[in-house]
Design brief:
The chain is 22% helix and 4% strand. The radius of gyration is 16 Å and the shape is globular. The chain is mainly α and 91 residues long. The longest helix is centred in the last third of the chain and has 9 residues. The chain has a two-stranded antiparallel sheet with strand order 1-2. It has 3 helices and 2 strands; from the N terminus they run αββαα. The chain has one domain.
């Protein structure tokens, strides 16, 4: 979502559960979500000159920059790929 809001300036860190570094690691995730009904649109940043859309590199081949709608629409579209009945339950 931060990738979408900042026009690609801030990219998501790859999520990896396995620790392959051979040293101990502590992880403290922090999740901050917009309001479910908030419209998702890019923040105007003067220094962002173009968007690097990495959809060809993503596992789901989805582009966060092509999305239009609310944050709730975004979350439901992602989660309903795994739990299709959830969309009907929420709406």
């Amino acid at each position: 979502m931060l990738d979408r809001l900042t026009g690609g300036w801030y990219r998501s860190t790859p999520h990896r559960v396995r620790n392959l570094s051979h040293s101990d690691r502590l992880s403290f995730p922090f999740f901050f979500d917009p309001n479910f009904n908030a419209q998702v649109r890019a923040i105007e940043l003067d220094w962002v000159k173009g968007i690097h859309d990495d959809k060809s590199e993503r596992w789901d081949r989805a582009s966060v920059h092509e999305f239009r709608g609310t944050y709730g629409d975004y979350v439901l579209s992602k989660v309903s790929k795994v739990f299709p009945q959830l969309r009907q339950a929420v709406l």
